[in-house]
Amino acid sequence: GSSLTAIDLFCGAGGLSQGLEDAGFEVLWGIDHEENTKPTFEANHDCEMTVGDIRETEPPNLDVDAGELDLLAGGPPCPTFSLVGRSKINSLEGRSNTTDERHLLYEDFLRFVSHYEPKAFIMENVEGMLSAENDGGEPVVEVIKGQMQDIGYDARVQVLDSADYGVPQH
Description:
By secondary structure, the chain is α/β, with parallel strands linked by helices. Helices cover 28% and strands 15% of the residues. A 5-stranded parallel β-sheet has the order 3-2-1-4-5, with helices on both faces. The N and C termini lie far apart (36 Å).
């Protein structure tokens, strides 16, 4: 078709997919680990949603050659980067949030970017990620931006306030 194409990783019930469709994208596929979001997603979108662990999922063949996909979008959950999540996770079994395995889900996002080579991608996260550091004391945002550059992308970080877009919350 003539419309722009997108896939939605960590799609949940499909809120981001809805926004993409409203903006003129055809969403080809979504994935989320939460099974109870599938009926809502599929009731509102004309594509299949896979329920599963993205870490164990190979990018599906969507009849899109590498470089053809217009947009890969998603918000890998990073509770370790959220301001509220840090102390909560630190208190769990005395674990450090920097070694919590959930903060590596963005690497699967980048694995999908590397596979599809989309013209652009959007990786949504929380503002607290800007002040997060990894085990070596490096800013997480700079580490991730470096990994994005390694696979051929020039990434820009921007903080948006949803209230500026008509959402009744900051």
